[in-house]
Write a structure and sequence with these properties.
Number of helices: 4
Number of strands: 11
Mean pLDDT: 91
CATH architecture: Alpha-Beta Complex
Low-confidence stretches: none
Structural class: alpha+beta
CATH topology: Nucleoside Triphosphate Pyrophosphohydrolase
Helix content: 10-25%
Number of domains: 1
CATH superfamily: Nucleoside Triphosphate Pyrophosphohydrolase
Radius of gyration: 15 Å
Protein backbone atom coordinates (compact mmCIF):
# COMPACT_ATOMS: atom_id res chain seq x y z
CA UNK A 1 0.00 0.00 0.00
CA UNK A 2 1.12 3.52 -0.79
CA UNK A 3 0.22 6.10 1.81
CA UNK A 4 -0.82 9.70 1.31
CA UNK A 5 2.60 10.58 2.75
CA UNK A 6 4.33 8.77 -0.14
CA UNK A 7 2.16 10.60 -2.68
CA UNK A 8 3.02 13.87 -0.94
CA UNK A 9 6.75 13.04 -1.31
CA UNK A 10 6.42 11.87 -4.92
CA UNK A 11 7.23 15.29 -6.45
CA UNK A 12 10.74 15.04 -4.94
CA UNK A 13 11.36 11.97 -7.15
CA UNK A 14 10.00 13.70 -10.28
CA UNK A 15 11.19 16.50 -12.52
CA UNK A 16 9.33 19.85 -12.57
CA UNK A 17 6.36 20.15 -14.96
CA UNK A 18 8.25 22.89 -16.83
CA UNK A 19 11.11 20.49 -17.75
CA UNK A 20 9.95 19.50 -21.25
CA UNK A 21 13.20 17.65 -22.13
CA UNK A 22 12.84 18.28 -25.87
CA UNK A 23 9.70 16.12 -26.07
CA UNK A 24 7.08 16.56 -28.79
CA UNK A 25 4.27 14.53 -27.20
CA UNK A 26 2.80 14.06 -23.73
CA UNK A 27 0.83 11.44 -21.80
CA UNK A 28 -0.95 11.61 -18.47
CA UNK A 29 -0.36 9.11 -15.72
CA UNK A 30 -3.54 9.72 -13.73
CA UNK A 31 -3.54 8.71 -10.06
CA UNK A 32 -6.90 8.15 -8.39
CA UNK A 33 -6.58 7.97 -4.57
CA UNK A 34 -8.15 4.91 -2.93
CA UNK A 35 -8.08 4.09 0.82
CA UNK A 36 -4.34 4.11 1.52
CA UNK A 37 -3.36 3.43 -2.09
CA UNK A 38 -4.13 4.68 -5.58
CA UNK A 39 -5.19 3.41 -8.98
CA UNK A 40 -3.70 4.26 -12.38
CA UNK A 41 -5.75 4.84 -15.53
CA UNK A 42 -4.91 2.73 -18.58
CA UNK A 43 -6.76 2.97 -21.87
CA UNK A 44 -7.00 0.56 -24.79
CA UNK A 45 -6.56 2.13 -28.20
CA UNK A 46 -8.97 1.16 -30.98
CA UNK A 47 -7.78 -1.10 -33.81
CA UNK A 48 -6.60 1.22 -36.58
CA UNK A 49 -4.08 0.24 -39.29
CA UNK A 50 -2.70 3.80 -39.44
CA UNK A 51 -2.01 3.91 -35.67
CA UNK A 52 1.42 2.70 -34.54
CA UNK A 53 -0.09 1.72 -31.18
CA UNK A 54 -3.30 0.20 -32.60
CA UNK A 55 -5.18 -1.96 -30.09
CA UNK A 56 -2.57 -1.52 -27.34
CA UNK A 57 -2.99 -0.60 -23.69
CA UNK A 58 -1.68 2.94 -23.24
CA UNK A 59 -1.87 6.19 -21.30
CA UNK A 60 -4.03 9.10 -22.49
CA UNK A 61 -2.09 11.65 -24.51
CA UNK A 62 -0.73 12.59 -27.89
CA UNK A 63 1.31 14.91 -30.06
CA UNK A 64 1.94 18.56 -29.39
CA UNK A 65 0.01 20.85 -31.72
CA UNK A 66 1.09 24.34 -32.82
CA UNK A 67 -1.62 25.89 -30.61
CA UNK A 68 -0.15 24.24 -27.48
CA UNK A 69 2.03 26.76 -25.63
CA UNK A 70 3.57 23.99 -23.53
CA UNK A 71 3.49 20.22 -23.21
CA UNK A 72 1.29 20.71 -20.15
CA UNK A 73 -1.23 22.28 -22.56
CA UNK A 74 -0.81 19.21 -24.79
CA UNK A 75 -1.49 16.72 -22.01
CA UNK A 76 -4.47 18.72 -20.73
CA UNK A 77 -5.97 18.94 -24.24
CA UNK A 78 -5.27 15.32 -25.22
CA UNK A 79 -6.52 13.86 -21.92
CA UNK A 80 -9.75 15.84 -22.24
CA UNK A 81 -10.19 14.89 -25.92
CA UNK A 82 -9.58 11.18 -25.29
CA UNK A 83 -11.18 10.58 -21.88
CA UNK A 84 -13.35 13.59 -21.03
CA UNK A 85 -11.24 14.19 -17.90
CA UNK A 86 -10.47 17.88 -17.33
CA UNK A 87 -7.11 18.26 -15.60
CA UNK A 88 -7.49 21.94 -14.70
CA UNK A 89 -8.54 21.15 -11.10
CA UNK A 90 -5.98 18.36 -10.62
CA UNK A 91 -2.56 18.44 -8.98
CA UNK A 92 0.37 18.08 -11.38
CA UNK A 93 3.02 16.30 -9.28
CA UNK A 94 5.76 16.48 -11.92
CA UNK A 95 7.08 14.64 -14.95
CA UNK A 96 9.11 11.49 -15.49
CA UNK A 97 12.02 11.33 -17.91
CA UNK A 98 10.97 11.66 -21.55
CA UNK A 99 10.92 8.37 -23.47
CA UNK A 100 11.44 7.59 -27.14
CA UNK A 101 9.24 5.25 -29.08
CA UNK A 102 11.06 2.46 -30.94
CA UNK A 103 8.59 2.43 -33.86
CA UNK A 104 8.87 6.25 -34.12
CA UNK A 105 12.33 7.28 -32.84
CA UNK A 106 11.63 10.96 -33.60
CA UNK A 107 8.67 10.74 -31.20
CA UNK A 108 9.74 11.79 -27.69
CA UNK A 109 7.02 11.44 -25.05
CA UNK A 110 6.88 13.32 -21.74
CA UNK A 111 4.84 11.54 -19.02
CA UNK A 112 3.00 13.88 -16.62
CA UNK A 113 2.09 12.47 -13.20
CA UNK A 114 -1.27 13.92 -12.15
CA UNK A 115 -3.16 13.39 -8.89
CA UNK A 116 -6.93 13.46 -9.32
CA UNK A 117 -9.01 15.03 -6.56
CA UNK A 118 -12.22 13.13 -7.24
CA UNK A 119 -13.48 10.08 -9.12
CA UNK A 120 -13.61 11.31 -12.72
CA UNK A 121 -16.49 10.56 -15.06
CA UNK A 122 -14.79 9.13 -18.11
CA UNK A 123 -16.28 9.74 -21.55
CA UNK A 124 -14.05 7.95 -24.03
CA UNK A 125 -13.52 9.26 -27.53
CA UNK A 126 -14.62 6.05 -29.27
CA UNK A 127 -12.74 7.03 -32.45
CA UNK A 128 -9.48 6.67 -30.49
CA UNK A 129 -10.14 4.53 -27.43
CA UNK A 130 -11.98 1.23 -27.01
CA UNK A 131 -12.07 0.94 -23.22
CA UNK A 132 -10.30 1.84 -19.97
CA UNK A 133 -9.29 0.19 -16.72
CA UNK A 134 -8.24 1.48 -13.31
CA UNK A 135 -5.31 -0.62 -12.10
CA UNK A 136 -4.32 -0.62 -8.41
CA UNK A 137 -0.71 0.50 -7.99
CA UNK A 138 0.17 -2.69 -6.07
CA UNK A 139 -1.10 -4.75 -9.01
CA UNK A 140 1.28 -2.87 -11.31
CA UNK A 141 4.20 -3.69 -9.02
CA UNK A 142 3.25 -7.38 -8.83
CA UNK A 143 2.37 -8.02 -12.50
CA UNK A 144 5.79 -7.54 -14.12
CA UNK A 145 6.86 -10.45 -16.36
CA UNK A 146 8.14 -11.41 -19.82
CA UNK A 147 5.70 -11.90 -22.71
CA UNK A 148 6.33 -13.74 -25.97
CA UNK A 149 5.31 -11.96 -29.18
CA UNK A 150 5.96 -13.00 -32.78
CA UNK A 151 9.05 -10.76 -32.76
CA UNK A 152 10.45 -12.10 -29.46
CA UNK A 153 10.19 -11.83 -25.68
CA UNK A 154 9.63 -8.43 -24.10
CA UNK A 155 9.10 -7.20 -20.53
CA UNK A 156 5.46 -6.43 -19.78
CA UNK A 157 2.82 -5.92 -17.14
CA UNK A 158 -0.11 -8.32 -17.41
CA UNK A 159 -3.51 -7.35 -16.04
CA UNK A 160 -6.85 -9.16 -16.31
CA UNK A 161 -7.90 -6.74 -19.05
CA UNK A 162 -4.71 -6.48 -21.07
CA UNK A 163 -0.97 -6.50 -21.54
CA UNK A 164 1.17 -3.37 -21.23
CA UNK A 165 4.49 -3.43 -23.06
CA UNK A 166 6.74 -1.14 -25.10
CA UNK A 167 6.77 2.57 -24.37
CA UNK A 168 3.88 2.36 -21.86
CA UNK A 169 5.73 -0.41 -20.01
CA UNK A 170 8.84 1.82 -19.88
CA UNK A 171 6.81 4.73 -18.49
CA UNK A 172 5.13 2.58 -15.81
CA UNK A 173 8.51 1.09 -14.83
CA UNK A 174 9.98 4.57 -14.37
CA UNK A 175 6.94 5.55 -12.34
CA UNK A 176 7.37 2.53 -10.03
CA UNK A 177 11.02 3.57 -9.52
CA UNK A 178 9.91 7.12 -8.65
CA UNK A 179 7.38 5.83 -6.10
CA UNK A 180 10.03 3.56 -4.55
CA UNK A 181 12.49 6.49 -4.38
CA UNK A 182 9.88 8.64 -2.62
CA UNK A 183 9.37 5.92 0.02
CA UNK A 184 12.99 6.15 1.20
Amino acid sequence: MVSAEVIAKLPTALKPVSDEQGANAAVSLLLKPRRGDFDLLLVKRVENPSDTWSGQMALPGGKREPKDVSLKDTVVRETLEETGVALCQCQFLGVLGAVRSEPKPDFKILPFVVLLKDEPKLELNKAELETFIWVPYEEVVQSKCMVEFSFGKVPAYIFADGVVWGVTYNILSEFVKAVEASQK
